[in-house]
Design brief:
Elements lengths: L2 H11 L1 H24 L5 H24 L4 E6 L1 H4 L47 H33 L1 E2 L3 H14 L6 E5 L6 E3 L5 E5 L7 H17 L1 H14 L4 H24 L4 H15 L8 E3 L3 H12 L10 H20 E5 L36 H26 L5 H10 L9 H10 L3 H14 L5 H7 L5 H14 L5 H7 L5 H14 L5 H10 L3 H14 L5 H10 L3 H14 L5 H7 L5 H14 L6 H6 L5 H14 L5 H7 L5 H12 L4 H10 L5 H11 L25
Parallel strand pairs: 1-7, 3-5
Antiparallel strand pairs: 2-3, 4-5, 4-6
Helix pairs in contact: 1-5, 2-3, 2-12, 3-8, 3-9, 3-12, 5-8, 6-7, 7-9, 8-9, 9-11, 10-11, 11-32, 14-16, 15-16, 16-18, 17-18, 18-20, 19-20, 20-22, 21-22, 21-23, 22-24, 23-24, 23-25, 24-26, 25-26, 26-28, 28-30, 29-30, 30-32, 31-32
Length: 744
């Protein structure tokens, strides 16, 4: 069937059928997820059977819905979703409305959902309805997924064509023995290829096991474990079920639950095969070591879509924990389990498939639908007749548009009244009107507000006008606001600075920089905040001056924050000076945060010195900043901080060492594995996992023997390269001052 024919078939089934299939498929997947949660302590084989049945049921659900002879109309949808597309009315020369679709004009045939106007010559977009656009989009997404699957099959075929058979007794003997243990009557093809970095199994009808080229150097125990795992996939027909799930993803590519279900199916198949390997006598610790070495050797290799790799990084952590778990259930699913799940699946599938679409009631709809008369389309609302005597059919959408227009007209009338109130003789009324207009959509009143800000004699009115211009974010008002920075009222000047920070126009940076010399400390503080909001590099000299000499501590704090927001390297020197010498601990802490934001390597000495600061928070943020900068060598101050008296400082220092990645930190990090605080120990494991060092891996492997389950889990994550990043949160952005008047 051609693509156009497929689209026509889907269109013929109707939008109601598509919507019903989507809703029923979602309900079915939710049921599968709930059952899987109830079986979380069961064997992986049983959970894999559940996911296989769930994906198959989702694929069969639309077909079963069409085949069932009965319906349960319980899914209520708007009538417009069930009705066929309405014809577009034709405008006549007299202004009268053309006959409705229920009574077409003689000899006139309209294509549903399309205009009868002749197509204009040249290249134009297809005149498709919304439903047809969606159908073509669905087809495009399905083809993308299927093409990826087809490309994977082609890549597998090419790998097999170029591979070398492994026919020596070193391989054939363990292959036959493993096949006998698993009950396979026929051994698959066994080859080696330099195109793969880890073992994969491929081929649904003619299975083959492809091993990496360096597999010839494996020990006999590793060979047997790997072959047993791959043969377990063949024995369980996992590849065929995986391809079925990929087909399900192609059909339901827009549904996230289908993709999650396919991933869970893939994960449970690997765990079930791991259980089969352990079931034939392989020790869990030995098998986990084999899996670890293979995964590390493969790196970030991605296997073709038509093959099953032995290990993937995103699955590694959970599999390692499942292998090492002593009390896990590993028995394969029995026929009794399959029968019970099949019965449960039918009990869920059949009622869902029988659910039909019920028409939602509409205001003004024909009551004959209740008595059983069919409704062929949406019933128009009753409306007055036109002047020519022809009834005018008004849809619900037209009614909503009319109501919206009336409301908009009322809003416009109210707005004109409020703008007129700006000329009121009472200052309180003018101020209230200005604040009422302070909304982004009220830009029509900008001129009147600017006049108030320039000329009104009352300071509260000028303040309200500046506040309104800031809330409107009116960039055209920047020159007027800049001039108002010289207002005689400090409260107005503070509000003007805040408004310029709201607008964030870089042209206002020079005026705000001059405002940093204002006599009022609150004005200077708000101007500093505004410059941090705008993030203009030309403000760095003025902000650095305030950071070094302002008598108001809040101004110095905001200046350090603003320099961190701008992230200009020229600010690193003044920030380092403030970090070393400012008398306020909060200023020093903010300066350390800002240096971490700028990430200038020249700041490392100042931050290392700050690791001895008297304030604990300064030491913590300095460690975080060193981790952000990531110098090539770990500073000695960080190494010493891993033994600090405060656990939070130790944790931040350890995190920073993991960020830096210097192998010289391995002894300090290894010693931290014995820390008395669990969070510090887990952070040390994470940091060791970031180091490309054999000594670091040895320390992590040793942690797998810890009696603490959380430590073992953290060790598995570290070996798998998982970035459970314990980064401390940076300093939060200071909240903007809503209006200085509120702080009076």
């Amino acid at each position: 069937m051609s693509a156009a024919g497929l689209v026509q078939l889907i269109a013929g089934l109707g939008a109601g059928w598509a919507l019903g299939s989507l809703l029923k498929g979602t309900l079915l997947l939710v049921a599968v997820f709930l059952i899987a949660a109830a079986l979380r302590r069961a064997s992986a084989s049983l959970r894999h059977l559940l996911w296989s049945g769930g994906i198959a049921a989702v694929l069969l659900l639309p077909l079963v819905s069409l085949m069932l002879p009965w319906r349960l109309p319980v899914i209520r949808v708007p009538a417009a979703a069930l009705a066929p597309p309405a014809a577009v009315p034709l405008a006549t020369g007299t202004g009268a409305v053309a006959p409705s679709p229920a009574a077409p004009a003689p000899g006139l045939a309209l294509t549903p959902g399309r205009s009868s106007a002749p197509a204009s010559p040249g290249l134009t977009l297809p005149n498709l309805t919304a439903a047809e656009w969606f159908e073509w989009m669905w087809l495009a997404g399905a083809l993308v997924v299927l093409l990826r699957l087809g490309r994977g099959a082609w890549l597998v075929r090419r790998v097999l064509h170029r591979a070398t058979p492994l026919a020596s007794p070193d391989w054939t003997v363990p292959l036959v023995e493993a096949a006998d243990r698993l009950g396979l009557a026929r051994e698959p093809l066994l080859v080696a290829s330099d195109a793969v970095l880890m073992p994969i199994v491929c081929g649904v009808w003619r299975p083959a096991i492809v091993l990496p080229a360096d597999a010839r150097e494996w020990t006999e125990r590793r060979r047997r474990a790997v072959l047993c795992h791959e043969l377990a996939h063949v024995r369980r027909f996992d590849l065929g079920l995986t391809i079925l799930s990929r087909i399900g993803c192609a059909i339901w590519w827009f549904h996230p639950l289908v993709w999650v279900a396919a991933r869970r199916l893939r994960l449970e198949s690997e765990r079930a095969c791991d259980d089969m390997v352990l079931g034939v006598g392989t020790r869990p610790s030995e098998y986990a070591d084999h899996l670890l070495q293979i995964a590390c050797g493969a790196g970030s290799m991605r296997s073709p879509a038509a093959a099953l790799p032995m290990a993937e990084r995103r699955e590694f952590e959970g599999r390692m924990l499942a292998i090492l778990e002593k009390d896990a259930r590993r028995a394969p699913a029995s026929r009794r389990h399959a029968a019970l799940l099949a019965a449960l699946g039918l009990a869920v599938l059949l009622p869902l498939a029988a659910m039909g679409m019920a028409r939602a009631p509409q205001a003004g709809a024909d009551t004959g639908a209740v008595s059983g008369r069919p409704i062929s389309g949406s019933v128009p609302d009753a409306t007055p007749a036109s002047r020519s005597g022809t009834p005018v059919a008004r849809t619900r959408q037209q009614t909503r548009e009319q109501v919206h227009t009336e409301q908009h007209q009322m809003t416009a009338v109210a707005r004109r009244a409020v703008v007129a109130a700006l000329q009121d003789a009472e200052p309180a009324a003018r101020a209230a009107a200005a604040r009422t207009l302070g909304q982004p959509e009220d830009t029509a009143a900008v001129g009147a507000l600017e006049r108030l800000l320039r000329t009104d004699a009352n300071a509260d009115v000028r303040l309200a006008a500046a506040e309104a211009l800031g809330r409107m974010e009116a960039k055209r008002s920047v020159p007027v606001l800049e001039a108002a920075l010289g207002d005689q009222s400090a409260a107005v000047r503070r509000t003007v600075a805040w408004a310029l920070g709201q607008i964030e126009d870089k042209s206002s940076v020079p005026a705000l920089a001059r405002a940093l010399s204002d006599q009022d400390g609150a004005v200077r503080e708000t101007a500093v905040w505004a410059l941090g909001q705008i993030e203009g590099a030309e403000a760095v000299p003025a902000l650095a001056e305030r950071l070094g000499r302002d008598s108001r501590v809040e101004v110095r704090r905001r200046a350090a924050w603003a320099l961190g927001q701008i992230q200009d390297k020229s600010a690193a020197g003044p920030l380092g000076t403030a970090l070393r010498g400012d008398r306020d601990a909060e200023v020093r802490r903010t300066a350390a945060w800002a240096l971490g934001q700028i990430e200038d390597a020249g700041s490392v000495p100042a931050l290392a010195e700050a690791m001895r600061d008297s304030a604990e928070e300064v030491r913590q943020v300095s460690a975080w900043a060193l981790g952000q900068i990531g110098p090539r060598r770990a500073p000695d101050a960080l190494l010493r901080a891993t033994g600090h008296d405060t656990p939070a400082v130790r944790a931040k220092a350890i995190w920073a060492l993991g960020q830096i990645g210097d192998a010289a930190a391995v002894p300090a990090l290894s010693a931290a594995l014995a820390d008395s605080v669990a969070d510090v120990r887990r952070t040390a494991l994470w940091a060791l996992g970031q180091l490309d060092s054999d000594a670091a891996r040895t320390a992590i492997i040793g942690a797998l023997k810890s009696p603490d389950p959380a430590m073992r889990a953290a060790a598995v994550r570290a070996l798998g390269g998982g970035r459970a990043d314990p980064r401390p949160q940076p300093m939060p952005r200071p909240e903007p001052r809503p209006t200085p008047a509120e702080h009076e």
